[in-house]
Amino acid sequence: MNQMALCCSILLFLALSFLVSSLHASEGDADPIYKACLGECEISGCVGKICFQHCKFSSDGKPIDGPWYLQEPLYHKWKQWDCRADCQYHCMIAREEQREKRGDKPIKYHGKWPFQRVYGIQEPVAVAFSALSLAVQFHGWLSFFILLNYRLPLRHDKRTYYEYTGLWHVYAVLAMNFWFWSAIFHCRAVELTKKLDYSSAVALVGYSLILAILRVFNLRDEGSRVMVAAPLIAFVTTHILYLNFYKLDYGLNMKVCMAMGVAQILIWGVWAVVTCHPSRWKVWLFVVGGILLVFLGIYDFPPYKGFVDSNALWHAISIPLTYICWSFVQDDAELSTSTLLKKTN
C-alpha cells in the first residue's frame, strides 16, 4: 500500500509540473490558406460546393434575406451558426483535408481541434458522455437519498445520522449543474456557454476540495467547517467573477481547476493509506482514475477521425468514477450510521 501511495505521489508531482506550461496560439488561425478561404467565403458565401444562404450580403453589408437567424427553421436557431461560424468550420475542414493528404498532423483553429459536426453539434462524443455522466450522477444522488431516508434509521427529529448528508446533497446539485452545462457547451461553444461551463466546473472542483477536507479530517462542528470553507469559497467566487466580468481565460481556469483537483486527489489518497475504512479500495480506484483524468487534461491530442480526443476520453472515464464515488458515499453513510447507533445504545 505504501508503494502504491509513493507511485501516486510521483505521478501527481509530474502532473503539477506541467501546470506551469505556457499556452500557444492556435496554428490554424495564422494559416494563409485558411485565412484566404475565410475571406472568400464571407464574400461569396461558399466553401467549394457548399454555400450558406445567410452569407449573402448586399452592397451595404446587410444580409439580402434579413438576419441569418430569421432564415433558418426554429429548431436550428439555437446553434447560432452565423455566416462567419459556418465559414470557419467548413474552411477548417477543407484545409484539414488538404493537410491530411500531405501527411500533416491536425492543428488547432481558434483554440479548438478540428471536430466533425453532427446535426450542428460541435463535439458529439463529448456531449454523449456528458449526458451519460449527468444521468449516472442523478442515479447516484437518488440512490443516496433513498438509502438515507427510507432504508437507514432516522433520528427522532427525522434527521439522518450521517453528518455529511447536506454536504453531499450540495455536491450532487453542483455536479449535475456542471454536466448539464458541459453538454450544452460541447454542443455549441459560444461566449455564454463557455462562461457557464467554466464557472460550473470551477465551482464543482472548489466545492469538492472543501468536501474532501471536511470528510477526511472528520470536521463536524460548524466553526471548523466555516474556517475551512470560507477562504476557498471566497477564492472560487473571485475566480468566477474574474472569468465572467474581466477575462474569459481558458488557460488560467484550467490551471486553477487542475491545482484544486490534484489537491483533493492527494488528500483522498493519503487518507486511503491511513484509514481502516472497509470501502477504502473504492477511494483508491477513485484516486487512480483521478490521476488519469489529470494526465488527460494535460496531454491534449487531436480527435481520432474528428470525434474522440483527450477531452472526450476525460468525459468517458468520469462515468465509472461517478458511480464509484456515490458507491463509496453510500457505504460511508451506512458505516457512520451503524457506528453512531452502537454508541447511543
UniProtKB/TrEMBL annotation:
GO cellular component: endoplasmic reticulum membrane; Golgi membrane
Keyword Transmembrane tagged: yes
Gene Ontology MF terms: hydrolase activity, acting on ester bonds
Signal sequence coordinates: 1-25
Location of this chain's protein in the cell: Golgi apparatus membrane
Transmembrane segments: 125-148, 168-186, 198-217, 226-246, 252-274, 281-299, 311-329
Cross-referenced Pfam families: Per1
InterPro entries on file: Per1-like
Annotated keywords: Golgi apparatus, GPI-anchor biosynthesis, Membrane, Signal, Transmembrane, Transmembrane helix
Any one GO BP annotation for this protein: GPI anchor biosynthetic process
Role summary: Involved in the lipid remodeling steps of GPI-anchor maturation.
Family: Belongs to the PGAP3 family.
The protein's name: Post-GPI attachment to proteins factor 3
Naturally occurring in which organism (per UniProt): Hibiscus syriacus
